[in-house]
Write a structure and sequence with these properties.
This protein is mainly alpha-helical. The protein is built from 23 helices and five strands. A three-stranded antiparallel β-sheet has the order 2-1-3. The protein has a two-stranded parallel sheet with strand order 4-5. Strand 1 and strand 2 form a beta hairpin. The relative contact order is 0.13.
Length: 511
Amino acid sequence: MQIVHNASQTGLVAYWARRPFAMVALIGAAYLAVLCWLAPGLSPDPFFGGAIYDGYYYAILNGHFDLPPRLLRFEGHYTPDAQGYLYHGAGPLLLRFVFGWAWPFEAIPMAGFSIWFWTALGTLGYQVALTDMITQTATPVQRNAQGWAVFFAATLWVCGPATLLVVNQSLYHEPIALAYGAAGAFVAVWVRFGHDQLHPLLAFSVLALCAAITVHARPNLAIGLYVALTALCGWSVIKHGVRMLLPALLAGAILGAGGLLYLGLNTLRFGGAAEVHGSFEASETQYGTVFWGIEPQDSPRAQAFTEHGRFNVQRIPPNAGLYAFDLPALELTHGPSMAMYNLFQRATEDRLGYIRVEGPRYGLLWLWLIWAGFAAIGLTQVRRAEHLVLAAGLLVGVLVTLSYGTITLRYRFDLWPLVAFLSFLGISRVLAGVSNGHQPGNFKRLVLAVALIGTTVTTMAAFQYTGMFREIEGSFFAPWSNGYCIDLAEGAGFSSDQMPVICRAPTELKG
């Protein structure tokens, strides 16, 4: 990595960044917007929690952090007097503070726009990173390589996390989409800095900002970004001396501010900087399912967390296997799918307790077959120092995610940054050979077939996923009527004179 700006590389990147790649990005963003617009109408029931962050925004404007139980429902974490708090990160409030002054919250929740914006931004970041990495192994005259680069850039938009993120606009996907967007920008800036396209002061500042934002969306992923950037700062100062000290110090200040803000918000919500959510036991803040009596304190999930921890390194191998190879429970694969799940249970239950596995179940190998294949090649190409540091940092975030006691489709998106980066290395290496005339037999057919399989599986999963987390009557996600809220509150031991406050209307966002 050179600190001096490389003019020849600037011309190369400018060549590759011309109209085809801009068109891919514009069409891809439009494609995601259409999916985002169509998805809510595929079911008569709205997505769960679409207005929760809107309510959170107005609560902060009014000087408090608690939200009505009828808005949070079982996903809230509650104090003994039934004050409810959202434990998900505050990062998605960012767009609301930017656009909230003009947004018609009463008519249109911002969740859909927020998810689309961060998903499109993240995919654009990955496209830029992919394009920049390919430029290091091809020259402007190698049109064949550029054609393949356009193909892979387009595939990012239709065969990756983006499609699945925008078709489900429930509460859970806002922080995940934000983390996806910030991580995509992080990888793009990292790659561009490594190719001498950004001044260190700008690069380190943007990297630190992306990592700090991710803390307030997906802390498990942010840990990896923090590790990678801290290592880069230290290595740069050691290698290049005092001229890298200011960029490193500025990055450290931004990282520290992001962390302190996160700890401060935890203190305001849960009474302690290290408290990130409620507990299953009776305490100052308790899980909503336990607080409202639909889950016992000694449930299998609670026992597993108590006995084995929320994060446990022993979960990593079995969880990794299921995340990678799990088969969807479709008509043709139902038998093998159940056999795989039963095998997973037998391998983990006695040692690690209950690990919740949520549907729809699609292994990332089938969802992202083309990226997984190139990532395997990319593992052999992690040679440059900045590649090794980034891969190691992203791996930390992956391991934290794999050690958690729940497996779900949306957590696979936290594994994507590492898969994407390694696959870009693999694609760059393969295209270098293709551009120089060393194209293996049936290369085009193989790549197109694998991309088609991944896109087909992703599209199937998207149709299934858009029906998840809907406010279906009688389900866990159903809206609470005033009467239902009163019944729950009475069952929790509250008196009738407390009901007007506890069961206040969830739509009174400005109140």
